[in-house]
Amino acid sequence: MTMKVLPLTQSETVAPCCPPLSERPLTAEEAERTAIMFKALGDPVRLRLLSLVASHEGGEACVCDISDVGVSQPTVSHHLKKLREAGLLSSERRGTWVYYRVEPSVLAAMGRLLTRAAPTSPPTTAPPADQLNVSTA
């Protein structure tokens, strides 16, 4: 039996967002695009669905494997659609089922956004414990 691999579908192409916040101020467009992604992650059901897909074996999950999140199937479909529109998931139809995959480049860009830039000067170290003025009484 031969299996035909279908291309991933995505309702809207979303480019990875932005440079780290500490690098420079975001443009209005970057802020808008980034807010959409974080807004999608601001819902506990969506965050759980994203986690289920990301942690699923092989990095992709059939909707049939991730729909037990305490809400109805139509609500699961709604939340998955929002995650796709935000660019966090991509999907592929295989027969009657839809498989979801996390968009690693988008998540990596979101992670970099929140990562603080490396300091330009060496970090200061705390004084040794015996030099601290701490009372043990």
Blueprint of the fold:
Elements: H1 28-41, H2 44-55, E1 60-62, H3 63-66, H4 73-85, E2 89-94, E3 97-102, H5 104-114
In helices, the fraction of residues equals 25-40%
Spatial sequence of strands, sheet with the most strands = 1-3-2
DSSP E strands, number: 3
Give the topology string: H per helix, E per strand: HHEHHEEH
Structural class: alpha+beta
| Percentage of residues in DSSP E strands | 5-15%
| First-residue to last-residue Cα separation | 77 Å
What does this molecule look like?
With 137 residues, this protein is α+β, with helices and mostly antiparallel strands. The chain has helices at 28-41, 44-55, 63-66, 73-85, 104-114; strands spanning 60-62, 89-94, 97-102. Helix 2 (44-55) crosses helix 4 (73-85). The radius of gyration is 21 Å and the shape is globular.
List keywords for this structure.
137 residues, alpha+beta, three-stranded antiparallel sheet, disordered N terminus
